[in-house]
Amino acid sequence: MSTPHGCTDDSDVIATFKEALKQRVGHERFQIWFSGVRFVLEVADPVAGSVEPSRSIVAVAAGQFAADRLSNHYLAAMRGAAASACGASTTVRVHVEDRPKHQAELPFAEGDASDASGIGEPSETSRPGSSVRQERRTAGNAGGSSVMRKPRGAQSLQAILRDGTDSRKSPRPKRTTTAPRAAVSAAGDLAGGMASPGTQGEAKPSTDKTANHGSNMRSECSWENFVGGQCNELARTACKMAIESPGLASPLVLWGPPGSGKTHLLSAVAGKLRGLHRMRRVVYLSAEEFTNDFIKALNGNCLPAFRSRFRDADALLIDDIQFFVEKKATIRELHHTIEMLADVGKPLVFAGTKSPNEINGLGGELSGRLASGLVCQVESLDAQTRVQLLSRYAEERCLIPWPDATLQEIASVAGGDGRLLSGIVNLVALLQRMHGQMPSMDQIRQHGAHLLRSSGVPITLNAIERAVEKVFQLDSKSLQSGSQTKSITEPRMLAMYLAREMTSSAYSEIGGHFGGRSHSTAILANQRVRQWLDAGRSVGRGQAALSTDEAIRRIESMLKTG
Q1: Within 13 Å and on the Cβ side, how many CA atoms surround 291?
Q2: Is 261 helix (H, G, I), strand (E, B) or coil?
Q3: Concatenated DSSP letters for 468-501?
Q4: How do the residues of the chain divide into helix, strand and coil, expressed in percent and rounded to 5?
Q5: E strand map for 164-211
Q6: Biggest CA pair distance of the chain
Q7: Residue 479, φ and ψ in degrees, nearest 5
Q8: Helix count (H) and strand count (E) of the chain?
Q9: Which of 54, 40, 46 is nearest to 94 (CA)?
Q10: Cα–Cα distance between 175 and 253 in angstroms, integer?
Q11: Phi, psi values for residue 516, rounded to 5°
């Protein structure tokens, strides 16, 4: 007859086993697949002819999905870890935690939902050696003071209802003639939901705090206040097509440098889909939020609820898709989600800093699926668009109107990043409060030189090449030569790094400019320069040698001043 020994009695053995298992499968996989698994050491009476009792480590999984995953993929690793911790004769087996029968009677009232246990969490009543705790709980139930504790990392029923992934929803509030959007799922609102521009003037403000928070976060990102120009005309036309005919040319991918308006366009499309087409479950979130939700679902054994939330959506919009790089499990889950939504004609819109084919580590299947729809580039803001955006920001945030000459001059010297323009307007608004009048351009330059650059030398690959050659005292076109001396190769790598950081050029374009080299050479140069910055290395040879930081500062200053 076996005597179970839990982690409390044999904590050293279990701790050694966990550490050995973590080394075998890796820290990240251990956190994902074993954080919800409980290990129990069982010691049986010795068999005839044997002195040592037989030992067995039991992996108690919270559900059948987790148990199957452990048996199919990690049983060999657990056996090896058990042999290291307890000896070669130690066996390993997987056990599914039995769920209590009364779990189906969990309360659904709002006040009780916060105390409810998460789905798929193990129950104490089925743990070996828990008879004493069960007796205490039975006594507590008899006294009418039963308390159901929520396990750490579990998803409450209130969260399930809020995400719209459970059919047992709370009663809807009374509908009004002006609020057909009141039933929009909180999943879409929390993921970046926005009040519909088409009904903004008619609908009454929602009293729900969560909905108000999401609306405030995206209040400026509507279709009507998006500043259009030649730089984003292609992307605007594609988004308009997606709004008028959802599912056409899906998935739609917008790519371009930061601050070019991609996030604004995604939020505007989400609002129009809710307002014009009355889509109740428009899910709009960032790639990081999708990844975090996926990991939480794995840890909490709530993968079906996670898939229901995304695969039953009316539309899916994800920003910053470059965040998915090298996240293989998340990429596989996203690819299946996209395939399922695309098969039924649901609109899919994505945004990132690069086109799908240029994002290394995204996977051939996912990048190919994204490229199969419509891929549109959003360029940096041109001069005319910068004037319009500055004028709008100034009207909203500044107490004193801006002279047209100031608008034109700042637009001509500012970069094409819309967020930098927002920072410039905030700075001018502060200077207005300090001086009580509109500051002069000299005052703006004095306090905001880091936000402005000269328009005399546009930052192009040729401009960067000339600046690097001048700083390191090199001959013209030497960076495009085939020379492999360090006095040439190191400045060339620095030029490739700056070209990637300061322009929207792809790696293939950068490598081709500097002597017809491949995109992998440009990628390697970018990695090398980052290592130099971390190590404080110098670049160049002889009198032209400079620290990497100092060389970058000199080159940037030369590009700004011309």
Answers
A1: 16
A2: coil
A3: HHHHTT--TTGGGS----HHHHHHHHHHHHHHHH
A4: 55, 10, 35
A5: none
A6: 99
A7: -70, -20
A8: 24, 11
A9: 40
A10: 36
A11: 70, 35
Residue 169: phi and psi, rounded to 5, are -95, 150
Task: Report helix, strand or coil for 105.
Answer: helix
Token pair 């905001």 is found at 448
CA–CA gap between residue 244 and residue 12 (Å, rounded): 64
Q: How far apart are CA 447 and CA 421, in angstroms?
A: 14
Which of 315, 332, 344 lies closest to 369 in space, CA to CA? 332
According to the model, what pLDDT value does residue 394 have?
93
Helix ranges (H only) for 168-317 are 186-190, 209-217, 233-244, 262-277, 287-299, 303-311
User: Is the bond preceding residue 251 a cis peptide, omega within 30 degrees?
Assistant: yes
Residue pair 30/21 in contact by the 8 Å Cβ criterion: yes
Q: Is 508 exposed, middle or buried (0-12, 13-18, 19+ CB in 10 A)?
A: middle
CA distance 171 to 189: 19
DSSP-based three-state secondary structure for 178: coil
- Torsion of Cα atoms, 140 then 142 then 145 then 151, to 10°: 50
Task: Quote the DSSP letter at residue 232.
Answer: G
Please tell me what DSSP assigns to residue 322. G
Q: How many Å apart are CA 160 and CA 155, to the nearest integer?
A: 7
Let me know: does 125 contact 92? Beta carbons within 8 Å.
no
pLDDT at 12: 79
- pLDDT less than 50: residues of the chain: 1-8, 101-219, 454-457, 561-562
Q: Which two tokens stand for residue 229?
A: 């120009």
Q: Look up residue 422 and give its amino acid.
A: S
Query: What per-residue confidence (pLDDT) applies to 220?
Result: 64
All residues at 6 or more sequence positions from 308 whose CB lies less than 8 Å from its CB, including other chains: 165
Question: DSSP letter string over 384-444?
Answer: HHHHHHHHHHHHHH-SSPPPHHHHHHHHHHB-S-HHHHHHHHHHHHHHHHHHSSPPPHHHH
Q: Three-state DSSP class for 110?
A: helix
The neighbour count for residue 148, using CB atoms within 10 Å, is 13
| Residue 186: predicted pLDDT | 32
DSSP 102: G
Beta bridge partners, 3, equal 43
Residue 359 sits at φ, ψ, to 5 deg, of: -90, 100
Residue 458: what pLDDT? Answer: 64
